[in-house]
Amino acid sequence: MDCMEEAKTQFLAALNTSQERELWTFANLNLAIVYLRGKREDEFNALFDRINPENLPSQSHSLKAAAYYVQGLQAFFQGRYNEAKRYLRETLKMANAEDLNRLTSGSLVLLGHIFLSLGNSRESMNMVTPAMQLASKIPDVHVQLWASAILKDLHRICGDSARENEAYQRHLSFSQMLMHDHYQASQMPEHALIRWTQGNLPELPPSAGLTVAMGLMRP
Predict the structure, then answer these.
(1) SS3 at position 19
(2) What is the per-residue pLDDT across 94-126, written as a single tens digit (0 to 9) for each?
(3) For residue 159, is it within any domain?
(4) Can you give the residue range of the structural domain that contains 155?
(5) Cα dihedral angle (56, 113, 30, 181), rounded to 10 degrees?
(6) How many CB atoms lie under 10 A from the CB of residue 97?
(7) For residues 96 and 125, what is the distance between their CA atoms, to the nearest angstrom?
(8) Which candidate among 5, 127, 144, 202 keeps its CA 20 to 30 Å from the CA of 195?
(9) Number of domain units in the chain
(10) Taking a C-beta distance cutoff of 8 angstroms, is the pair 101, 119 a contact?
């Protein structure tokens, strides 16, 4: 929902209140993505050593794969495409071995974006097509939105106006779906919890409180 400041505050609160190694690494990786999206390079660099996949405090393969993805994302934003490809291929290798479908689809679509930026439309298509297929099974509308935008550009480059229009319509549909979901979420009483970091749980309507309690009890 692009609530980046609230996300930053929540992840920092998690780091300040937990000594659990897996959660600590998970929060740092997500915080790194918040900083990358906000172009906050100094803050990203300050936690760089904590998310280096070569010396993560966690032994989790999924977190190490995610760390390579974050490295690839940083390299992509900085235009270091060859490095980005190397990191993302490491992510794919580990994500495929662990059946991490969301990470696999995200890495594929980012690789597709990189190849498109390099003018290699064939390799871009080879990445984006399976990314879209996998994202539709999860489902992950964010990846579908990203992939459909790339597919639209690829079909335009190939001169296939029919498929270009089809990709555009799908992109429009995914965009409207996300906007609707974001609006609905923002209207829920639980939305206030994005600003809760300490103290007692804020008072919510009975039905909302039950929803939160059930969510906290899920494994």
Answers:
(1) coil
(2) 999 989 999 999 999 999 999 999 999 999 999
(3) yes
(4) 124-186
(5) -150
(6) 10
(7) 19
(8) 144
(9) 1
(10) no
Q: Is 108 exposed, middle or buried (0-12, 13-18, 19+ CB in 10 A)?
A: buried
Question: Which positions ≥6 away from 158 have C-beta within 8 Å?
Answer: 121
Give the predicted TM-score (pTM) of the model.
0.87
**Alpha helices, DSSP H only, in the chain?**
4-17, 21-37, 41-46, 61-77, 81-98, 101-117, 121-137, 141-158, 161-187, 206-217
- How far apart are the C-alpha atoms of 141 and 148, rounded to whole Å? 10
Measured distance CA(100)–CA(60) in Å, rounded: 12
Share of the chain above pLDDT 70, in %: 93
Q: Examine residue 210 and state whether it is found in any structural domain, yes or no.
A: no
The DSSP H or E segment spanning 93 is helix 81-98
Is the residue at 161 inside a domain? yes
Q: What CA–CA distance (Å, rounded) separates 178 from 58?
A: 33
**Cβ–Cβ < 8 Å for 70, 29:** yes
Rg (CA), the chain: 19
Task: Please give the structure tokens belonging to residue 46.
Answer: 């300050």
Query: Tens digit of pLDDT for each residue in 166-190?
Result: 999 999 999 999 999 989 988 888 8
Tell me which residue of 32, 67, 65, 34 sits closest to 52, measured CA to CA.
Answer: 67
The answer as to whether 174 is a domain residue is yes
Distance CA 162, CA 158 (A): 11
